Amino acid sequence: MDKNQLGVKYMQEGNWEEAAKAFNEAISDSPQDPVAYINFGNVLSAVGDDEKALKFYEKAIELDENAAAAYYSAGNLYFNKEHFEQAKKMFEMALKKGLESSDNFFMLGITLIQLDQGKFALPYLQRSVELNEEDAEARFQYGLCLAQLQFIDESIVQLEKCLDLDSQHADACYNLGVAYGFKENPEKAAEMFDKALEIQPDHLLAGYGKKLIENEK
Fold it and tell me: Where are the TPR repeats (predicted)?
């Protein structure tokens, strides 16, 4: 097992110190290999040293401007810091450099939503779901985006698929309740609000939605 593989193994185990050692050795052995810099950056990011992590991603890109994973990792870092414009640029660059993974499409999609660009987010979220049909959170965000763009029937399909994958997704239940309310199906809406509250008793929006329906009776 080479040093990069060993470091990844340590990362998966949550052993950040040993992972950092392995990646540091990988950089010493092959200082022109961008992969070790990306991996080391990911360790630094995981332990909260974002500034240093970014320097490692930048070094990887300096060594190989086509290092798509470096752009993706930098995008995640910017997203977590709520620097959404910079995150968008990084995810777009990762895509341009060939990273057509469900995760990259998903992150680009939700970044665009944060920038109030739901119309542009939709195709990326759709592609994310196509590439990984078992991702409940991608289904949820895709369904939410469809609802915000007034594609209510399509939204219901995706939110129900999200619940098939994760029956404890309270927010999917709540948003299904809203969608059914919009479709003038108060019984189904109430059922979904109840389910959301069963999963998460302090779900304020579901509680409010349920009261609204009860007041309309």
Answer: 4-33, 34-67, 68-101, 102-135, 170-203
| Contact indicator for 137, 163 with CB cutoff of 8 Å | no
**Ordered structural domains, the chain, with CATH:** 1-99 (1.25.40.10)
C-alpha–C-alpha distance, residues 202 and 79, integer Å? 28
Distances (CA, A) of 161 to 108, 133, 138, 172: 22, 9, 11, 10
Predicted TM-score (pTM) of this structure: 0.91
Burial classification of residue 48, based on how many CB atoms lie within 10 Å of its CB (0-12 exposed, 13-18 middle, 19 or more buried): exposed
DSSP letter at 168 equals T
Question: DSSP string covering 102-128, please?
Answer: HHHHHHHHHHHHHTT-HHHHHHHHHHH
Find all residues with CB under 8 Å of 80, minimum gap 6, and list them: 50
pLDDT bin (cut points 50, 70, 90) of residue 216 is confident
* Tokens at 175, concatenated: 């948003």
Angle, helices 34-46 vs 16-29, to 10°: value is 160
